[in-house]
Design brief:
328 residues, mainly alpha, Rhopdopsin 7-helix transmembrane proteins
Length: 328
């Protein structure tokens, strides 16, 4: 039995004696975060390396993908601290600054991924549905870099308050790192948490769905261009739509639904302890799904970029031939 380190209550508003059973965090989160670290770190490094080696032929989509991989890489580098924290039973020995930084990197990666995936989807929509549009014809790599700069600024502005609310505290004679906010700030965090969900998830998600609806309508038209090139573009756009939709459905949607419900419950007075415990457990159980976007994003890259998909195989063949020659 342990007192939850992110669902404690304001004095006089919520029950003050709720003890939550959260042993599942020690069993679930360290293995999942270890898998994300072991797979997401090398995959994103490979994506960054391949895009940088092809910088002469850098497309706008590749620019967005590069920034997406950078966001994922920053997050995966923070996972060792979280793995140790949850493996040791919510004990945080790394200090207040590291706590704030880790929580900020998680939400910056989450909402940065959402916005960069939206940019990639909008770029694909323009290329298929409006190939003669001025932005598509004349907006080159530098325009894409400007958009990425604006995305990073927007993400920093959206997620910086998480570094303010997140802090360390003492629970049952041990130091913990609060995920959302300290207990006394639960009601103050509520408006910000809801606003972050609306601005950082719902609006981009609605825009992305609108793009893919128009894209699907265009691809299903019978009077569209024909030929192998047009067919390949249609197939590429369809693959990207499926993978991006799957990423949102698996990683982002469950996390934001449970987080919103959890924020509402923990900010409501008179809620029974078992109900608080249930919502806390469901919300924290969806964190791994949100973390897996750091693995799904590079898979999206290799799944939709044919020219990059074959390069790792060519590199491995070259290394294998080289090793065989040296072994003779």
């Amino acid at each position: 039995m342990e007192l939850d380190n992110g669902t404690d209550q304001d004095v006089g508003s919520l029950p003050s004696n709720c003890i939550y059973r959260e042993n599942f965090k020690r069993l679930l989160l360290p293995p999942v975060y270890s898998v994300v670290l072991a797979t997401g770190l090398p995959l994103n490094v490979c994506v960054i390396a391949q895009i940088c080696m092809s910088r002469r032929a850098l497309t706008r989509t590749a620019v967005y993908t590069l920034n997406l991989a950078l966001a994922d890489l920053l997050y995966t580098c923070s996972l060792p601290l979280l793995i140790y924290n949850y493996a040791s039973g919510d004990h945080w020995p790394f200090g207040d600054f590291a706590c704030r930084l880790v929580r900020f990197l998680f939400y910056a990666n989450l909402h940065g991924s959402i916005l960069f995936l939206t940019c990639i989807s909008f770029q694909r929509y323009l290329g298929i549905c409006h190939p003669l549009a001025l932005w598509h014809k004349h907006g080159g790599r530098w325009a894409a870099w400007l958009v990425c700069g604006a995305v990073w600024l927007a993400v920093t502005a959206q997620c910086l308050p998480t570094a303010v609310f997140a802090t360390t505290g003492i629970q049952r004679n041990r130091t913990v790192c609060y995920d959302l906010s300290a207990p006394a700030l639960a009601t103050h965090y509520m408006p910000y948490g809801i606003a972050l969900t609306v601005v950082g998830f719902l609006l981009p998600f609605a825009f992305l769905l609108a793009c893919y609806y128009r894209l699907a309508s265009h691809l299903c038209r019978q009077d569209g261009p024909i030929g192998p090139v047009a067919q390949e573009r249609r197939s590429k756009a369809a693959r990207m739509a499926v993978v991006v939709a799957a990423t949102f459905a698996l990683s982002f949607l469950p996390f934001h639904i449970t987080k919103t419900a959890y924020l509402a419950i923990r900010s409501t007075s008179g809620v029974p302890c078992p109900t608080l415990e249930t919502f806390a457990a469901v919300y924290k159980g969806t964190r791994p799904f949100a973390s897996f976007n750091s693995v799904l994003d590079p898979i999206l890259f290799y799944f939709t970029q044919k020219k990059f998909r074959h390069r790792p195989h060519k590199l491995m063949r070259k290394l294998t031939v080289k090793w065989q020659r040296q072994g003779r």
